[in-house]
Amino acid sequence: MSIVKIMPCLDMKNGRVVKGIHFVELKDAGDPVESAAYYQKEGADELAMLDIAATLEDRKTRLEWVKNVSAVIDIPLTVGGGISTLEDIEMVLEAGADKISMNSAAVKDPELVRRAAERFGAEKVTVAVDARRNREMPSGFELVVSGGTNPVGQDAVAWAKQCQELGAGAILPTSMDGDGTQAGYDLEFTRAISDAVDLPVIASGGAGSLEHFYDGAVKGGAQILLAASVFHYRILGIRQVKEYLREKGLQVNL
Asked: Which of 59, 65, 147, 194 has the fewest Cβ atoms nearer than 10 Å?
């Protein structure tokens, strides 16, 4: 089994880290620069920073946030939110991101994924796949965009497969049903995606206990385990999670 990585996530709004439940009811969760430095020291393998209001507010990712956070870490930084053109990607990478994550823009223009992978390399392109349960979809999961506000009538798992064909380097599935609940990753959704693609899958949405991280890797098939609330509110520490996973027989970098 490959090495399992831990990826804290900074959801950003108005220059602060925020966290909500089901993408709403946002609360302040700290300063992004302080948080980033702390997580690297704690042993994070990678870091995600998502400008969660960019698409809804019809604006680009705030580049100063990227510059400030990337200046205090040397672990890989994935930045998402409001990225809709190759020029956006170039600016975000130049500001210090190692990878970008796109969602709504990729759904609107799938060829953007191909163009981005060809220009910048597949390893720099992550596609975030937000979904909610819908029995009318073949997989049982419907794709949603615009920060979880807009269902698009498309099967989420089929879309993940298409993203792999288009050249994406990783898939970041988030279940709207699990986000921020600390009730555990949506293992059914995560496994459906990891079974459908040969890319690294980043489990996201709902981690709240040590067991949830283990289940995300073993039952969900994810190589990277993303979490926010549980780290922001110091419910669990990154080292604590890694030591637990190693005790359970998984490979981690301590």
From this structure: 59
* Residue 253 falls inside a structural domain: no
Q: What is the DSSP code string of 42-93?
A: HT-S-EEEEETTTTTTT----HHHHHHHHTT--S-EEEESS--SHHHHHHHH
Residues designated as active site: 11, 130
Q: How many angstroms separate the Cα of 181 from the Cα of each of 16, 51, 128, 241?
A: 20, 20, 19, 18
| Residue 238: partners with Cβ closer than 8 Å, 6 or more residues away | 6, 8, 39, 42, 43, 44, 231
The CATH number of whichever domain residue 110 belongs to comes to 3.20.20.70
Rounded CA-CA distance 120/125 in Å is: 8
Cα(172)–Cα(222) distance, integer angstroms: 10
CB 18 within 8 A of CB 56: no
Buried b (16+ CB within 10 A) or exposed e, 8-18: bbbbbbeebbb
Give per-residue burial for 131-148: e unless 16+ CB within 10 Å, then b: bbbbeebebbbbbbbebb
Mean pLDDT of the chain: 92
Q: pLDDT tens-digit profile of 204-253?
A: 988 999 999 999 999 999 999 999 989 999 999 999 999 999 999 999 99
Say if 252 falls within a structural domain: no
Per-residue pLDDT tens for 111-129? 999 999 999 999 999 999 9
pTM exceeds cut of 0.85? yes
How many domains is the chain built from? 1
